[in-house]
Amino acid sequence: MANVICKECGYVGKSKKITKGSIFIEIILWLFFLIPGLIYSIWRLTTRCDSCPKCKHKTVIPIDSPIGEKLLADIQKP
Ligand SMILES: [Zn+2]
Hints:
alpha+beta; three-stranded antiparallel beta sheet; elongated
């Protein structure tokens, strides 16, 4: 996990990986229906993305990117 900055609320810190769906459904599908289980797993993996742990928005940018650095500088201005 990388250090990120949130465009929405200005949160600075570690991002949170948010995965859609549920691990419970995934296990059930795998146990009873192999193919839907596989599709469900792939869908969950592909929709997984970094999110802000504070406001839950997906508007997080890595701090070490040029845009992230600019945002951080803007936020830290008095
Ligand atoms: Zn946020």
